[in-house]
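Researcher: Structure for this, please.
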Amino acid sequence: MTWRLDGTYLESCSCDVICPCTWSGMTAKATFDRCWALLAYHVDSGEIDEVDVSGLSFALFLDTPPVMAEGNWRVGLFVDDAASDTQAVKLGGVMSGQRGGPPAMLGPLVGEVLGVVKAPITYRDDGRGHGVRIGDAADVGVREFVADEGLGPVQLTNVVHLSNTTLTVAPAGDAHLSTFGIDWGHEGQSGFSAPFSWAG
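Model: Predicted structure, token format:
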């Protein structure tokens, strides 16, 4: 094992709640003609080749066809500008799937890499509310949906997803995004949150 990352994740995409791509293992069509998604990660503790990356955040932007399993994804990566050059390279290697682990599942689906951007990333977590601000590119807040306090937040289980096999449903209360030349985002769009634990 040469690397390990543990932390929390949030996601919001342009689909209406709940994203068909997520519950179907990427085989159902997205709500619109393209699926635009931002997956943001905060590393509570992590090490890549003995380089400590704890406390850093990164995010993955996806621009995909309505049936994600068809591939030809366009992807872009945001890396915390608090990362040193070495830390940024290490995180980029993990997120590209080159280092194995869960991110490697995306490799066969990617048709174009839009770029890697270093930007200030502020990750927020107050229990049931989660949010991320990435420079001028994104400001997204999601909140875990609770139908019955006695049962806790609604979750999707046994999903095929690089972050976790159990995701908490967390619709976006607010979403303003301008990522790699695409302006998108609206209140109430699909959102999820979960802890993540990766190794490779």
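Researcher: Any notable elements?
Model: The chain has two helices and 14 strands. The longest strand covers residues 3-16.
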